[in-house]
Amino acid sequence: MATPRGLVQYLDQQLHRSSLLVPRGRYLVAVSGGADSVALLRLLHAINGSDHWHWTLRVAHIDHGIRGRASAADARFVARLAKQLSLPCDVITLRLGTTASEDAARRARLDTLAQLARKHRCHAVLLAHHADDQAETVLLHMIRGCGLDGLAAMQDRQTLTINRRKITLVRPLLSLTRAELHAYLHDLHQPWREDQTNTSPRFARNRIRHEVLPLLESIRPGVANRLNQLAAIAADAQSLIETAAATIRPARPPRRRSTLVFARKALREIHPLLLRELLRQAPASLRQPMPAFTFERLREAAHAIAHARQPAHIELGHGYAVHITGTQIVIKHNAHPPR
Amino acid sequence: MATPRGLVQYLDQQLHRSSLLVPRGRYLVAVSGGADSVALLRLLHAINGSDHWHWTLRVAHIDHGIRGRASAADARFVARLAKQLSLPCDVITLRLGTTASEDAARRARLDTLAQLARKHRCHAVLLAHHADDQAETVLLHMIRGCGLDGLAAMQDRQTLTINRRKITLVRPLLSLTRAELHAYLHDLHQPWREDQTNTSPRFARNRIRHEVLPLLESIRPGVANRLNQLAAIAADAQSLIETAAATIRPARPPRRRSTLVFARKALREIHPLLLRELLRQAPASLRQPMPAFTFERLREAAHAIAHARQPAHIELGHGYAVHITGTQIVIKHNAHPPR
Fold it and tell me: Cα(B280)–Cα(B295) distance, rounded to whole angstroms?
């Protein structure tokens, strides 16, 4: 295990190589008060002590209002830590209530972070996801059913649009393990707050963390690193496939955000995987949100595009359909799909 | 669950669609006596009863000589079953001894099957791997560390060269689950032999079968199907990437099975994933066996090819090295690597 100084040096070198963060960058660090985000904040603060980066760091703590008293204590803990490090800190309380879904909480959190980043002119929001989080995400996506995009799990840099506001997320800790971060905090005598939430949508992730990964680790130690490597390979493959699919141009510009038309002969010789990617990306090409088509529907449509001898019509779901004629492939979005 | 007749019909239709097996084909069915291979034999025999396929089926049973008396009883069981179905049967005893590794046993088994297939002019050897075997293989490859080729797991058709003899393996049952095959045998009142071997190299697979998959299934039912789907997607992606990498031509034909030369400018703009694939496939391009380079070495070499500003030399391991000059990339195989 690296010394605290060793871990700071390692991350510093990594950030030099990766260009994830830039000198004089303004960054909003999302700190829940848990070990991971406390370690992120202390590591960045330590790295910023050298004469190279000159970052402007700010702390943001989002209190979902789900955990009652413990929430308030988390907020005080983060505010105190920011003060000790002489960093400005915003604490925002959302009052989502105990019935909010995990997804609703996530969107509200990201929306608030995007607003704060804009207000403070920050270039990115920094998140504390680490190698074990990444391994859990790979397994979670796998058991829910995913393709290469899901297997790629979390990127170290990602731009999202939340309520029409763009937000850049950066994850500088993806190559470090939970154990390394905990050891770093122990060595610094830096406390953190334990998150006691165990709401039902996090149930699968908790079981992966506490049951599946330890079991896999007992069969073959070092599993988290190998899952991270597979995620990196899948991310590369997905980017290669997206680039290749993007070279397949529609026969004419899309009309009224609802119709994409391709020449059938342009699609006939194309690899089935690229056809599926083209269909998967069709909503984005129409500047619509991307729904999750099922693999079966995509495969059926790709097969029909390649092989149908007669005009055919395949429903992709979510209001999308593919119409196959002798010469054209038409992908249509029905804004008001039949109920 | 399908009826016995339903399962026969389903597989029959699948074989019509997939063209995995051809009418009047001559096939060697590998039967251990376990449930899976007994189900394969009975299903194929039932399908062959119709007036379409006219296959010539033969049974081959390989006795590894590892399990002593149980081995001999397995062999008698398979010979009796073949006789009931009026099919010719070869029983070959290998006498590998109790210390043989799983890999040595596998190679010896495939070698024997290839010899038998050749002797009887069979077009392919049929194996009983099913959807649950495939899911186990995906997880096994993942925990050992794999890329997309490992994630693709087993193909339904595969040509191998064992001791310079080509053998085509076909797996007609990959879309059926263990439960469906067992139910089929139960409904037929067809017994099978339980395999009691639990030799150490099979330890990881056994733990995946009996601990990991049931745990994942308890978190999210239907995991095996989704892992099979991911394997199919990975196989498609791998074939797409191999095809793309194969279009990158050396600057001149390889010399003496030891040297591949590329123009550096031909490789400079290439996606890192394709560069890694090119390096991974280099031994095959030199008509050498393909060793398993580590992901780190491949990544390091691909990075150097794209970015090195000075001549560089990277060892890939297994006697292979990449030499980078101002204008050339040379991949060399040292037949006698230094010890």
Answer: 10
